[in-house]
UniProtKB/TrEMBL annotation:
Pfam family, one: Peptidase_M50
First-level EC class: hydrolase
Keywords of this entry: Hydrolase, Membrane, Metalloprotease, Protease, Transmembrane, Transmembrane helix, Zinc
Protein topology in the membrane: Multi-pass membrane protein
Essential cofactor(s): Zn(2+)
Transmembrane annotation, as ranges: 99-120
GO MF terms, alphabetically ordered: metalloendopeptidase activity
Organism: mine drainage metagenome
Sequence ranges assigned to domain Peptidase M50 in this UniProt record: 5-122
Keyword Cell cycle: no
InterPro entries per UniProt: Pept_M50_Zn (IPR004387), Peptidase_M50 (IPR008915)
Name assigned to this protein: Metalloprotease MmpA
GO biological process: proteolysis
């Protein structure tokens, strides 16, 4: 049961982060890392590089993250702020593109929620039962 919960949450985290990833790549923003769980202190359970992106699974199971080039925490990364914005960086893009990248994760969550409810409605939704098949319940001509 715990394994199912962890698997379900992991799938949700991967899809959420994938929303940010796809939006960033669509606007030509460089993505440096895509991780499930956190690789605190540089430790990870599994990682590989593919097309300039480091994909991996961290050891600290508290969500996940996508590291996007140019998305700077001003209080920590003052060296990167000193240089001019590069065309592949998040900070060089117009505000509407940055907003779409930031909303990419929640957009995927909303689409996934709608899809799940749609599938459940099709599978378990209300079915039509003709009157001839009713054995118990509503009696024709009487109020409920």
């Amino acid at each position: 049961m715990v394994g199912q919960l962890i698997l379900g949450l992991s799938i949700l985290v991967i899809l959420h982060e994938f929303g940010h990833f796809i939006a960033a790549r669509a606007f030509g923003i460089k993505v440096e890392k895509f991780y499930l769980f956190f690789d605190a202190w540089g430790l990870s359970l599994f990682k590989f590089n593919y097309k300039g992106v480091e994909y991996g699974v961290g050891w600290l199971p508290l969500g996940g993250y996508v590291k996007i080039a140019g998305m700077i925490d001003e209080s920590m990364d003052t060296d990167q702020l000193a240089g001019p914005p590069q065309p592949w960086e998040f900070r060089s893009k117009p505000a509407w593109q940055r907003l779409i990248v930031m909303l990419g994760g929640i957009t995927v969550n909303i689409i996934l929620g709608i899809l799940i409810f749609w599938v459940l409605t099709i599978k378990y939704g209300e079915s039509y039962i003709p009157n001839s098949e009713l054995k118990y319940g509503i009696v024709p001509g009487r109020s409920a």
